[in-house]
TrEMBL record:
Record InterPro entries: KH_dom, KH_dom-like_a/b, KH_dom_type_1, KH_sf_prok-type, Nucleic_acid_metab_PIN/TRAM, P-loop_NTPase, PIN-like_dom_sf, PIN_dom
Keyword Nucleotide-binding in annotation: no
Descriptive protein name: ATPase
K Homology domain boundaries: 483-574
Protein family: In the N-terminal section; belongs to the PINc/VapC protein family.
Annotated Gene3D superfamilies: 3.30.300.20, 5'-nuclease (3.40.50.1010), P-loop containing nucleotide triphosphate hydrolases (3.40.50.300)
GO-annotated molecular function: RNA binding
Keyword field: RNA-binding
Domain of life according to the entry: Archaea
Amino acid sequence: MEIVPDTSVIIDGRVSERVRAGTYAGATIVVPEAVVGELEYQANAGRDTGWDGLEELQTLIELEADGEIEVEYVGERAEKSEIERAAAGAIDALIRDVAQERGATLFTSDIVQAEVAEAKGIDAEYVEPKGRDTESLQIESFFDEETMSVHLKAGTRPMAKRGAIGEMHYEIIDETVSTEDDLKEWSHDIEETARASPDGFIEIDEVGMKIVQFRDYRIALARPPFADGWEITAVRPIAKTDLADYDHAEELRSRLLERQRGVLVAGSPGAGKSTFAQAVAEFLVENDNAVKTMERPRDLQVGPEITQYTALDGDMAATADSLLMVRPDYTIYDEVRKTEDFEVFADMRLAGVGMIGVVHATRAIDALQRLVGRVELGMIPQVVDTVVFIEAGAVETVYDVTTEVKVPSGLMEEDLARPVIVIRDFETGTPAYEIYTFNRQVVTVPLDGAEASKSGVDQLAEGEIEREIRAAAEGPVEVDVQSPNSAIVYVDTNDISHVIGRDGKRIREIENRLGIDIDVRTFEDQPSTESESKTQGEIVTPEITTQHIIVPVEERGSGETVEVQANGEYLFTATVGRGGEIQVSRGSAIAEELERAIDREEMITVQ
């Protein structure tokens, strides 16, 4: 008896299973080289199916050594083009040819393969694909009611983020160290369950990284060479809310329904931004709005009435073009981070679509400032007219954004009137910030509270002086304007000579250009307690290796969430590893932005 197995039953281990059961005792297992080529291709691409299939072939050789079967490899090896066209049946055709030439029985768990074989007069034996438990995952045992995310890595103890929104704690949940075999078993279970379940799918499948959606879990599966070890990160929402649960709910309802709006939902990681965005999305649907989402990967937990779109062919701009044909009333963009994201958000908004964008920010005003430089200043109120800042799961601040032609606060002369973006507290109507251009610079001026202790003129002067001094200093710079005609500049000791210049030439040139006397001092002379507290975060020097960009953050604790910036501009948010560093895999979009900043010799800070 000769049996020709196809790729499907080799991957499932069905051949060795039948040999051990006695069904194929003494048979000759004829393995087409096309099957070997396809399995090798899958294994090289980092797919578990390829490794499972190769393991089954090794098992068959062991069974042959025990005298239970004979194994014979025949046929021509598949060409790369045929392997790439496997989904179109190219490999299946080569396997059928071998069975037909040998007069053998074709063994398959692919119903289409079996039907085609019988139609061509080939003896075929079909077996149902292996069933799976599609209701649960093995790693679900690590979750309890307060667990937002589980973090598993080979060689470490399982960790989780647990607690209420805004009060999460990163903690050990099991003292048993996970092995690489554990991670492989869990990863295989996650992938196969997602494939078999109607509630799951694999959203991203790249070498070394897969993103899996299963029910309300979003799971990242990382392995070398993308990561330095096997790792699983599983995240799920721990709360689902209604818009009525938040402060200012009635006012926000009226505002959203009055006309299509441009809204930024801002907050730090874990603050509850996505939970609020979900509540807004479902409120809009309930009030007769067509709502879609743009997510990469899809993460929001919304009802079936809301279609969730991801990046079309890896490009959110292409997704936006498609959405304009669909004509939604509102689109939820989760999350808006890179320059191209802001550009897509702005294009959609200016096309008349209501937009809700989820943005990482540590203050409400920071979310709006991230538009500066990415969107023409005068267009910002047309792109974003509302900012909602979420803190610990609650609406902390709501800003109304408008444009007025006026003299900016703190300036006096009427000929200084210009378009000014006014950011008002939504509840009181009190102006909180103004954004405008002055001497070719965009400035943001706070108008109330402690931040407003300096006038707009002082802040403009500080900005001009800091820009000039930074051109000569390598380290941090702080400016303290003493009067309209004098200022003190604080720099590192190593930068004093560079800033002053030979015989004071450089600092005199700066003073002449700005028309102000400048006293240059070191941070040690500063009256405050710690000079570093005056800088915008801890200055770091990233190290570029062949696989990673390593950002050292020695003064931060393991598991702490930090923001990485270049010259004060947001780059990304990350969690500090156990070694007191952040590792960014090269080739990713984040790494490319960081490398460009390093190449431009921008100051990299962590806060």
